[in-house]
Amino acid sequence: GGDEKAGGESSDETITLRAATGLSAQHGWWSDTMVPWMEKVEELTDGQVQFETYTGGELVSVPDEGDAVLNGTVDIALVLPIYQPDQFPMAEVTMLPLAHSDTLIGSNAWKALLNSDVELKDGQTYQEMMFTDFKVFPVSTTQEYSISTTGKEFDSVSDVKGTSLRTPSRIHEVYSDNVGINSVTMPAVEMYDALSRGSFEGSYYSIADWSGYGFQDLFRYTLTGINFGHFNSFIGMSQQKWEDMPENVQEAMEQANEEVFKPGAEEWINRSEELIEQNKEDGGKFVEFSSLDQEVQEVFTTGIEDTWMNYANMLEEQGLPGNKLIKLWRDLIVEEGGDVPDGLKNIE
Amino acid sequence: MRSALKIYRVFEWIKLIGIWISGISLFGMMMFIVVDVVLRNVLSDSINGGFEFVQNYFMPLAVFPALAYVYSSGVLPRMDLVLDKFSVPIKRILIFIMVLLEIFILGLIVQFTWEYAVSGLEREMSFPAAGSLYPLYPLFFLIPLSFALIIVENLFILFRNIIERKPSFLFKEK
Amino acid sequence: MDNVTIIIIILAMVILLLLTGLYIHSVLFATGIIGLILLEGFSFLPGLLGNEPFDRVASYTLTTIPLFVLMAQFILQSGIVKDLFYIVHKVAKGKNSVLGILTISIGGLLGAVSGSGTATSASLGQVAIPELRKHRYSSRLAGAIAAAGGSLSGIIPPSIILILYGVATETPVGQLFIGALIPGVLVMIVFIAIMLIYYRMEQKETYEEADKDSLIQQSDKVTFIRLFVVSLAASIIVLIIFVGIYAGIFTPTEAGAVGAFVGFLAALCLGKVNFEFLKVSLVETLKLTGMVMLIMIGAQIFGRFVSLSMLPRQLIAMLDPIMGMPALVLIVISLVLFVMFMFIEGAAVILMSIPVLLPIITELQIDLLWFGVFVGVICTIGLITPPVGLSVYAVAGVSGIKSDAIFRVGMAFAIAALVIVCGTMIAFPEIATFLPDSMSQ
Ligand code: NA
Ligand code: NA
């Protein structure tokens, strides 16, 4: 941001902050977390803090938000670290598949991970290792990812093997590899076209996000009760910018974050409920994982366990505390009421 | 002018190497996508990370190395309606100003993209595809390099307009 | 300096630099960068602009630009289209006006396989302009026909603009595509009508210059077998692309690569492939691609300036007093968008204006799907209006016809389509909503 905008010591000067996202203005993270957060901050500071907003990549594109915050292009942004596994290799941990969780469990566990004081390596916590340059305001994760297809059903193991699904992240590619699903990579904007014409059979996706690309019209079979991870995000500011904020503003920002966190998560639940309702009316099927053939369940579950170990090993090879991280994540998920396959409960 | 032409011939070689890198990348990109489509339809399995490779490797390689050649080919559009109506001396001054402005702006672009490339190198920026990471930062250096070549072209154009009587936006008119 | 002063300075600079003949991409680079320095100071620039050229080019969707152009080159270099135009000319019994109609219709047809107006315009420019010129079309009209015909890809589905709009507003892309069909065809009809008027006017002026001998000589060279082979090859190429896309064998983006490959195979079968063939095809494609990419990077930088200057928002704020009259607001919005699309590349306009327009549209209770199609039409028209009309530059680039000349005719095409199609869409919104509504029931 501009030089005239630094707040410094005096607490009555107006502070204008430039806020941005590469996501569309209708994306739940923006409309139901970031916008309420900014409104709350403006309200709590009696208008001392003002925001200038840029959405849909008009100033910063996905996934450059983190860089933009650190190099001063913008003051504050929704950061999506999973899109940059080269810079934030440990951010993908929330994408690990689970036996059970929901938006609130995923969100609370993500927040707990960011605030965790467990030392993972060289006395550093998770946040110190990954996001040390940022002031991080945790926001809700997405709803859990599901597998949805345009009609293909998983009645036997041979149905699973060779099914072609779009994989939105590196973790999903590893998982697909483990269970014998063929992964298709493709930009999200191309997906509608390719799916509607049968170029491939389905995707890992969170139901609440369907409407963004009109997938509610296409998906006819969705597996529920098994979870393919949560996409995460946070409202990020550079540590330096944060320290420039007057104390009352810092307090207002923290308080606003507390207040918007849960309603933001609930918005995903509301959205998904509406979409499920609509999809059922249009003839969509939602099939509970536990009702699947026993062997099919085993394939999916073994895949989950293998993926966790693959991810941990991948991090260890980079000299990162992969094993410690997955155990921490497992414990946080279980603490918040989620569950992992039995094979993961005993890893030490 | 004669020695300038000699040096320019070397420069033309460099530009030709550039356009051949781009040409091969373009043909390669076509084949790569076709193979991907065939595999998906025949084996219902596409090349893992196919679209990431196309967008991060093939596209920059098809576009940037060719830029200097493209620049000097006379294909780039401008509105020449008004300029053509001026007398030769005025036209010459205008072209001088234009070329200097062009060099200044291109210089800034080279600087910014170079800084980005260096920071990419420091952070070893990579992209995820097919479950692993592939380096991205080497490609960042293509950009300052290709814009720097356009600056060189502009220096030749500047030189030509000092020496020759007939003003032109191209070093060698077709 | 306040924003309004800076905006005025920069817009004046744009016009001045354009008129003095600076390259278009350089105008955008220069004014964008100077504008950003005035707004934010110098230190702000490296972080904002350093990654711009790479990010813009490293796009899967944009592969359609080089690959559809490459397809066109392969087809052109193997002589297929030249012979096809001859056949049509023969069937039309020498009525030259049919060739113009054919070119625009082919543009519409290609629009159904290509998402990018720029790529299609370049292809049309390469194959159609030499034929149109032979049949007594002036160079500026031939150029405008190719540019307008090609720009139809912007609205006839699949359309990159509609995809971007769908993503930005969370409107189902499939429904947008269906909704765009009738307005897209309407734009095509308007283009054809204007083309015919121009053609008639020109024939009266230039009747004397016609060179009939060369036409007859050329036609003698084409044998019956050759015609058969060529028609077969052309039908197979078109068929593969259409069937491939609509049967889900490949996506519209991948169709670029497949089309180019099939074009290459056709040339191979016709015995045309040699080193020279490859060299010419590739180099011509790269020239055009480089040109479009440079302008897109420039448009992106200029777009950053426009965005930070709050120009769109200030324009929209002025709408407040007329919010009670939706039709009037829409007319104003379409004029504003028309001007924005004149100066800025389409995708950039969508991305920067939707966040500002969406609240107004919602407040006026205007159908989002209808509005998306509406914006798509205006954007398509923007491809042929100066000073930033990518379709026209693409055509100028491949044909060597001066862009100013094409723009003068293109502007007539654009204004007619704006008044007639947008007017019809405001008066009868059903033409965009009727099809999607009836399909979803
Ligand atoms: Na199209
Ligand atoms: Na335009």
From TrEMBL, chain B:
The keyword Membrane applies. Its main location: membrane. It is a multi-pass membrane protein. Keywords: Cell inner membrane, Cell membrane, Membrane, Transmembrane, Transmembrane helix, Transport. The keyword Transcription regulation does not apply. Belongs to the TRAP transporter small permease family. This is Tripartite ATP-independent periplasmic transporters DctQ component domain-containing protein. It comes from Thalassobacillus devorans. The lineage of its organism: Bacteria, Bacillati, Bacillota, Bacilli, Bacillales.
Automatic annotation (TrEMBL), chain C:
It is found in: Cell inner membrane. InterPro entries: DctM, TRAP_DctM. Residues 11-423 form the TRAP C4-dicarboxylate transport system permease DctM subunit domain. The chain crosses the membrane at residues 6-39, 60-81, 101-129, 141-165, 177-199, 224-249, 255-273, 285-307, 327-354, 366-385, 405-428. Keywords: Cell inner membrane, Cell membrane, Membrane, Transmembrane, Transmembrane helix. It is a multi-pass membrane protein. Pfam families: DctM. Its main location: membrane. PANTHER family: C4-DICARBOXYLATE TRAP TRANSPORTER LARGE PERMEASE PROTEIN DCTM, SIALIC ACID TRAP TRANSPORTER PERMEASE PROTEIN SIAT-RELATED. This is C4-dicarboxylate ABC transporter permease. It comes from Thalassobacillus devorans. The lineage of its organism: Bacteria, Bacillati, Bacillota, Bacilli, Bacillales.
